[in-house]
Amino acid sequence: MQAKAMGIPIVQRWTTVPDYRQEYIDMLESLKQKGITAGVFGDVKNGNELADEHRRWVEDVCSASGIDANLPLWENGREAILNEFIEAGFEAIIIASDKDRLGKSWLGRRLDRELLAELKDRYRLSPDGDVGYYHTFVVDGPLFQKRLKILEANPVLKGPIWYLDILRCGLVEKADTGRIKLGT
After folding, report:
1. Sign for the pseudo-dihedral over CA of 115, 104, 3, 31
2. 125 and 170 in a common domain
3. Are 44 and 82 in contact (CB under 8 A)?
4. pLDDT band per the 50, 70, 90 thresholds, residue 121
5. Which residues does the UniProt record annotate as the domain Diphthamide synthase (predicted)?
6. Do residues 56 and 93 share a domain?
7. pLDDT range class, residue 180, cuts 50, 70, 90
8. Are residues 122 and 54 in the same domain?
9. How far apart are the C-alpha atoms of 145 and 171, rounded to whole Å?
10. CA dihedral of 26, 32, 38, 42, whole degrees rounded to 10
C-alpha cells in the first residue's frame, strides 16, 4: 500500500528461513537484469549490537548478485535521523513494541517530537540505556501522493512483542487524518 501511495512499483518475494539467503540473492539478480545496480538499506550501526553482522550479510548478498550495497544512515545517530524524518514531513506510527518496556499502549502512537522526548527520558532514566524495542510503519510523507489511513487494527501479543495487526487500511487524500479503530 505504501508503494501505491507513492506511485512506485513494489517487488515482493516469498521465501522460507532455510532458503532466505539464496532467495534474496536470486531476487537481487533479477533486479539487476532489469537495470538495477544498487540497493539502499536503512540500517543504522549506533545502538544495534548485531549491526556489524547484518551489514556483512547485506554486503555479502549484494556482492554475490553484482549489486552495490549502500547504507547511507550507517554512522548517523538515531535521534538525528528521527528528527530529520519528522522535520521532512514524514509520519509514522508504532506497529510493534516489546511487552516489558513499552507495552501495548504504544501501538498506534504517532512518531513525533513528543514521543521522541518520552523516549529520551526513558533512555536517561534507564540503568541499562534501553528504552525498549519498537518498529514503525510510515503512513505519509513528502513522497506520498496519498496518505495511508488505518481503518481497523487489533493489538496482538506474540511472544515478547505486541503487534498492531492491521485489518483494514486505505488510501485517502492527505487532509483526512482520522483515528485508528483498535479492537480489544
Report:
1. positive
2. yes
3. no
4. confident
5. 2-168
6. no
7. low
8. no
9. 9
10. -40
Can you give the C-alpha Rg of the chain in angstroms?
18
Q: In what order do the strands lie in the sheet with 161-172?
A: 134-140, 91-98, 161-172, 147-158
- Shortest CA distance to 132 belongs to which of 165, 85, 99? 99
Share of the chain above pLDDT 90, in %: 72
CA distance 168 to 84: 29
Q: Determine contact, residues 160/100, Cβ cutoff 8 Å.
A: yes
Number of domain units in the chain: 2
Q: How far apart are CA 139 and CA 93, in angstroms?
A: 7
Over range 53-59, report the average pLDDT.
Answer: 95
Cell 506520498, residue located:
144
Host domain of residue 173: 78-184
Query: Does residue 112 carry a pLDDT above 60?
Result: yes
Q: What is the mean pLDDT of the chain?
A: 90
In contact, 166 and 135? CB cutoff 8 Å: no
pLDDT for 119 equals 86
